[in-house]
Protein 1
Amino acid sequence: MLTHTLGFPRMGSRRELKTILEAYWKGTATLESLQADGRVLRRLHWQLQRRAGIDLVPVGDFSFYDHMLDMIAMVGAVPERFRREGEQADLDTRFFMARGVRGNASAPAMEMTKWFNTNYHYIVPEFFPKQQFRLSSSDLFDHLEEAIQAGFPAKPVLPGPFTFLALGKETVEGFDRWQHLDALVSVYEAILTRLATCCQWIQLDEPILASDLPRAARAEFTAVYKRLQNAANPARILVATYFGGLEENLELALDLPVTGLHVDLVSAPDQLPALLSQWPTSRYLSLGLVDGRNVWRTDLDQAREVAEYASQWIGEEQVMLGTSCSLLHVPVDLELEHELDPEIFNWLAFARQKCGELNLLRSALAGEPVAAPFEENRQALAARAGSKRVRRQSVRHQMEALTPEISVRQETSDQRRIAQSERFNLPLLPTTTIGSFPQTPEIRAVRHRFRQGHITAEEYQQTIKEYICQVIDFQEESGLDVFVHGEFERTDMVEYFAEHLEGFCFTRHGWVQSYGSRCVKPPVLYGDVERPHPISVQWTQYAQSLTGKPVKGMLTGPVTLLNWSFVRDDQPRRETCLQLALAMRAEVLDLEEAGIGIIQVDEAALREGLPLRREQWRDSLSWAVDAFRLTTSGVRKHTQIHTHMCYSDFNHIVEWLAFMDADVISIEASRSHMELLQAFQNVRYPNDIGPGIWDIHSPRIPSVEEISSLLCRALQILPAERLWVNPDCGLKTRTWPEVRASIHNMVSAATAMRSALSPAMAASQS
């Protein structure tokens, strides 16, 4: 019974890939050293998996930026603005596509959005008429050769053609990207034919089978996979599905002329009986029994029962054991967490430990002696279930007291708009930022010294105040209309608030990739959530004391705290989210009491946590919106509530954004060239909108002309009285030279547009 993972974390246990990438981008490392360090990291990850008992190690899961970007390069789908005559899609070209800069050249970076319902961002493929596809990168073949020469049993992994097309976008209105399917599949055939000469298994990821399958894809799936399996012979194709169940696509998946099918039995355990009842003979079934997205130990007894049940139906020689999805979404090694509470440590498993769990399952099914580790697993699960740290009676009482009325603001949006206009007297097209300013090495060093006890709390607080003074001065000089305090005290928008809430614990090396070299360290939400004291009030109140301009209180919303943490799996997510909302509601009310008139509650993750099928969205969106409203509904009419969202596909849930009843929503829009705003117009979104006009995930500095062009496009869709001007997201990852220049251009563009609009608006009012 073969064990395998669908993919392994790329960054390294100590973020080695981040270090070497950023050194290369800064020019302090060569391409040769970057490639050499990548080879070392790949080999280390293969070794970790093999030593933990994995039979087939994935190859192709490693990327210097993003696996979808690598696929774009491999099939030659490089947009013209990044292409050089006769050039292969090399690593620098990929960085150009993702970051928008290459030496002195610059171009708008490719759009980036969330990988299904995770917090991982992928680069969105672009499709247009007369596009040519050809094999344009050899990286996958090179990595496979590395693995084979090093003696590893390798399984190439790449996105399947249907998922690749489905997750792309057309760049020409009226064009149907599915017209490219045949040409794209021809390149896939060439890839598979070459891979098949040196491996037994090839994994093609088609998570699109766990979603609402486009009609064009459904009609061609079987015929395409017949072509692909023929091209891959004698290698075996494993079609991998995950993040949900097959449901209405079950029959289609079972009819695919391939050797194996992988299903996610963590997110969709109920799909197995129907699957087995129709299982074709001589087909391998890969069981995703170990959670690739969360950090809790696997219930080994339960997983063994499932594997035994499947083996009795189809024969154990046809069963494979795997992770539910790629381990990309979890940290590498729990053994590095020497400072983690021992009780909670015993409840967890990271990527290396999850590989070990698969090996234990295989050993148990083979009749090998596993009594001791299985008993240890039972004791750990029982200890977690019975721990007094998990449930708080005070939180339970608050939850029981909730009523629908508590989540409704007393005044209409129009009434609030009048009160807020009188209080703030903001100009047309008010300018602001999303929250954070650059997190320089000096700021990080101050926080580190404080955590290590090298400076006192008073010294730390005084230093943070000095940074706040500097950023308030900068905003005054720049001419911004609504300020922020800069968030210099925060490591991360989720981790910072979680550190001040009961029910969370934290790791030192629990990093996971968000995009490119950007990593996050999700806190572990293990128990009931409660706020023992105010969190952000002192810093925001201090910043407001330095200026007559309004300073936004900056908070992370309950849905984002939920989705960007490793969340407890012992109660419904809705219940956990409402606990978080109660905690953040108390923070909102304390900010208002302290005199803060504008409070931004960021919900960047509202969209990404949804199930893959649209028919299941209503329930999830309902409690997510309820949680936001519970957080914000207690304020008075002259207090303005903002929210922010970015890098997810919001087109299909705009009506739910209106139900959130925020006074202002700021949302990513620059990479998509304001496409999203049409959806807001279609539902007649009633409140103010700040579409991002500066792509902060790229080091490019947008010109005044570029920003003005985006503003003009926004004004074609939205009335000027409801339009704000702001970047796509926070500025913590940018440098101060980029920030100064970009904010200057942003304010200049808004000021010029404001002057141009004022006479016309005055004339229309007269």
Protein 2
Amino acid sequence: MSTFHINKISLAMAFALASTSMSSKAVEFNTDMLDTADKANIDFSRFSKANYILPGLYQLGLRVNDQNVGEYPFNYYPRDNEPDSSEACVSPQIVSELGLKPAALNKVTYWHQGECADFSQLDGTTVRGDLSNSSLQLSIPQAWIEYSDPNWVPSSRWDEGIPGLLLDYSLNASMSRPNEGSNSQNASISGTVGANAGAWRLRGDYQGSYSRASGSSQSSEHNMDWSRVYMYRALPTLRSTLSVGENYLSSSIFDSWRYTGMSLSSDDRMLPPALRGYAPEVSGIAKTNAKVVVTQQGRVLYETTVPSGPFRIQDLSSAVTGKLDVKVEEQDGTVQTFQVDTATIPYLTRPGMVRYKFAMGRPSTYEHHIQGPTFATGEFSWGIANSWSLYGGSILAGDYNSASMGIGRDLFLLGAISADVTQSFARLPSEEKRQGKSWRLSYSKRFDEYDSEVTFAGYRFSERDYMSMGEFLDARYHEENSGHDKELYTITANKNFSEVGLSFYFSYSHQTYWDQPTDDRYSLSGSTYVSLFSLKNVSLNVSATRSKISERNDDAVFVSLSIPMGNSASIGYDGQYSNNRYSQNVSYYDRVDNNNNYRVSTGVSSGGDESTRTQFNGYYSHRGDFADMSANAAYSQGNYTSAGMTMQGGATITAKGAALHSGGISGGTRLMVDTEGVGGVPINGGRVHTNGYGIGVITDMNSYYRNSTSIDLTKMADDVDSSRSVVDSALTDGAIGYRKFGVTKGAKALAVLAMADGSHPPFGASVRNSEGKELAIVGDGGIAWLTGLQGGESLDVLWDGATQCAISIPKTLRDQEQLLLPCHTVAQSQTSTAAKNSAAIEPTDNIHEEQ
């Protein structure tokens, strides 16, 4: 092999189209305008028709209305009556995942022995392949699709993931050395062990602790136990989750208790983001085809076009509150305007929708013992009109029964309110029947004109003989018969002063009991950004709390000031008053990079009948590929010295690979990414790097929601290339998703490919490795820019739909070397390794992978 010097290459792909149209008709190229001596030696078979793709099998990323769906193998077949054309074969399985309405599905026909979908009956639907980015673009008018949202996909495309095992953990350890008394060491661990099979998730939550005191009397304690074991799965057709095993009652009406049994409850996460929670419904009548615009204080929240007649807009975000302005612009130029007022509280449900929760089983203890009567409970909330919701529920448990009924109302300008009453019936062994009522009132209101909000205000009153299920179990089996609730007042509110960048938050709760002292808690905080001389964006925060429990006040006040110093560093001051003692500290904070930061502080504490002491604190945090870690140390003069550390992470094991990873939601949804054996590839801005086997795990994934995961090309090693750097996924709760990126690692070289007779492979020929990956397209004069080369490997060169010759790469390569590579002819009857692999491409990124 020899190297050579390359002149400028005129690949002015002005393929000088001689035809007048880029339609589906054949295109004839004017080769006289190409800067090449061998004009006859050009393979334009793949370019001669607009969007024409040679018949064969291709691995393509499917995009529906510009949204990534997944990567699939697609066969291109010629139509029976059009032998010179080819069309992508979209299988019935893929059609079932497109989210088409039933009426649209009935219009889809099939050809090529029922293997391929024909969308010609769906007006406006187009299918177009694009080999330049290895994609198949499917455009479907909105009228044929169930629902459209940029961050949501229909349930037909939710990914249940692949089978696998997982182990998540959170480890904490600390040691303290007081000036007086015994030294102590403490450690605790908690997490989840799980297994996935199809739609089912098996989970076991565990926790344990260890403590040891050293000194004159050494002692140690330790325990380890499963806190609960359960299984669950999503039921997409019901928009619900089914759970079996040990659990805690989740209810919007009743108190919670631990039980062993099963539950079925609607899951708002399965709804499109704009349909989760409560939001107003905007309805009206359009005289013509009209544009409807919903705004709030001049900001457009929603805009759509509706046909003439009644219309209903049901997909406003549940986060929208306050007064909405609606404008209907008719085709005849007339405009009608009106306003919709809204507020949100937990018991308002969208019109026509029903939220429900059912559970049955028997109460159980933390030691996994069944203790209590068999029970069944259910509750619902029904949006009966645009401003009214009806809700209620009941518990049936033999010696304990209760029923509740309530109603919610949007009061428009006055906010939103809900009220309910619960009646309980209990029978205790040593007493007569006990029955009582509990009334509850809740309110919420956003005051847009004052930029303030009463987030929640509530009042509850319970009669002396009213008992919740938890109180009944305590009295029946543990002889605990105190602390009966009487009255509860709660309020949370905030106020913003946008002109000066000042915000306040206030919360208050007042709980009285029939048989013990009152509890009170107040909390007030304020924050702002100010300028001090030449210093900008100085942050000032003030917080104060008071807790009164058993007639004893516990007061605390905290003040902090932070001054930015450059891009990531800041210095600060904080002062705190608590338990009659004052402390003051100065601190320095710096963010080293996206994954590392630290803070050090020093100061003094005084008061509380104790001497003045100096103190020091340090904190460091690191987000790693294999775990999230932090370390801390503290020193208080004449008092104590302490140090501690935390570590959060996990391991995920599947047939596709295994990896250690940083922490996320314990036992939660995750995505395993595969970079085809290439390690150290940065994912999502470098927050995760693949391990030595090319496997990484992303743990901060949202369930039932479109998630995009990407390779950070700016941080990738020079010898690594990616043909596919972005993947999308929509995973069900607890799933282990799997996606493969197109990544190659190896040297790069500019080469001239030459045949034995001195000619070159034609312009447009494809160079592929033994795995069937295309590494280059041959240009003028046999020029090819090759990437991902491995020393000593053999590459196939294909044109006219077959492998025509093969080249051998030198065993020793220098990056970006210039090479002259002889291309040895391959007999037409011989099938090369690359051709075999090309004909046997398997799916790597199916939304529903066959198990």
Protein 3
Amino acid sequence: MQEKGNISIHTENIFPIIKKFLYSDHEIFLRELVSNAVDASQKIKRLASIGEYNGDLGELKVKVSFDKEAKTITISDSGLGMTAEEIKKYINQIAFSGATEFVEKYKDKGDEKAIIGHFGLGFYSAFMVAGQVEINTKSYQENTESARWICDGSTEFEISAGNRETRGTDITLYIAEDSEEFLDELRIKQILEKYCKFLPIEIEFQDKIVNNPAPIWAKSPSELSDEDYLKFYEELYPFAEKPLFWIHLNVDYPFNLTGILYFPKVKNELQLQREKIQLYSRQVFITDEVKDVVPEFLMLLHGVIDSPDIPLNVSRSFLQADSNVKKINTYITKKVADKLGDLFKSDRQGFEEKFENIGIFVKYGMISDEKFYDRAKDYCLVQNTDGKLFTLNEYAEFVQANQKDKNDDVIYLYSSDVLAQDGFIQSAKKRGYDVLKLDSVLDNHFINMLEQKIVKTHLKRVDADTIEKLIDNGIVIETILSEEDKNTIKGIFEEVISDKSKSVVLEAMPVDELPAVITQNEFMRRMTDMSRVGGGGMGMFGAMPNNYIVSVNANHPSVSKILQTSEAADQKKLAKQIYDLALLSQNMLTGAELTAFIQRTAVAL
């Protein structure tokens, strides 16, 4: 038997297209060819299970080998094999997928989702790296001869009698000069571990099995222990800390999806993680760019998602827009929300201990997803500066009676830096007020969201104004200074303060408050902070200069002392000391000014 002919395609330029444009990365060729070999092995198992093949299945592993001297890579399987006629049908007619036909034929007799390939072009990825490709194959069917197919990357091929004596297929790639990087043991091993690590048939390379054909996400949760989940996490991310907990995904309607998502320990900041969620299709690695499948707020999770129903482009390298993707995204959101809710209800103490690490997911989800907000509002926690944790409803009840202003609006005070704002926190506590600790990178957006969701409630940073103005309950504090004295004091401070970004006002405050405080308008400060963390449309605020208010306590003895001092120089010296104290309380006193303040204070001692 010998035959020559032309491959049935519509353009002479198909191979340059495949080589340069179809696949984004040339290493994909090994994934495609090994996947095809696994397909062939799965098919023969299927036929045996339904009684259409009665021979000995034998060992169904796929073997990958290379010969550096001969410049070849060979992928061998003991699967279905092909006849010469099948080669003509499945190989010579590009984009006719044998897997698609097989699934259609046997869809009512088993699990068609076990068959990987659906594109028909996977085999031709071999020509991205090979100058010539040879197939040597023998069909499982009785009384059929082995066949050999050779193609040099043009549209011409040759079919002749093969020399394979047992069922299965050998595909040999004669590696092109510009792709000899793949004739390296470590390189091949890395590609197999990346793309084929969890294929359902054993993959042998250099006499070692390089994959785990039965990953735990393909098993029922009832079969698995905590140790199994932790061991698998370590297999995925060998150097990562143990996860906090995990969610096992397992749904077969209206789409097929399995997987395991792990909640890692996350620092109190948004950051790109080296370990990402891995997307598989029938245990074949596709990508770790899963932004359309997984909601954005869960992109910091780790783990695996496997779905044959996620639409991919012809090269399986990119996700395509599809209603199933949206459904899967919604499902994952609900699954995560329900898991967090169950943890909160079943073990609140344990949930509170984990919240420092999972709070970033919860808050980000509430900000970005309305449906997630509806579920998470019942277990999202806020913490006050004393370390006590509350749900949103609990905190509303906690401050309801004591922190209302004259308009009957509830005021939540918060600190973005407990250490730096301690003086303001203590002033609030003197009045019996509570202060929340909201210091994560997301909290500016979280605060805005809460104000939109919780009626008649405002959030104000504890250093945004004097405490009497932050919670204006309508009680007027009288000043001991006359209007003339107030103008005198204001003039002295304005002369001492050379920074034009700071305005001086005299306030009637309690005697036990600081002699002066420096504050920034709450709205402008919040917009500026949001612009620094990427708040949409807030860029203009980031470019605007900061403006501050220096509020001088007209009732403080130190301020009265300025009026009692006769020398103008001494008046300014006292005002300067009060002003520097106010700067110091806001961490705004630095450099030479800080040194001068320390020296003055030391002399006074």
